[in-house]
Design brief:
The protein contains one helix and four strands. By secondary structure, it is an alpha+beta fold. A hairpin with a 2-residue loop joins strand 2 and strand 3.
């Protein structure tokens, strides 16, 4: 099986989740984006993929509205 990588990034008016070259969102908070990525990662894990979720530290908060 492959790996599934999810990256939380500043996106439009909030936060997005980048996966396989596409970004979903925007989510109002990083926590909401993390919850969305965790849901997707759970499905990937169930399907046998390794998973990775990255979230920027507090210094990135100023980049998103």
């Amino acid at each position: 099986m492959g790996s599934a990588v999810y990256k939380i990034v500043p996106y439009e008016d909030g936060w997005g989740v980048t996966h396989d070259g596409a970004t979903t969102g925007p989510y109002a908070t990083k926590a909401a984006a993390l919850a969305a990525s965790a849901d997707a990662a759970g499905i990937a894990l169930r399907d046998g993929h390794s998973i990775e979720i990255t979230e920027p530290g507090r210094e990135a908060d100023r980049l998103a509205p």
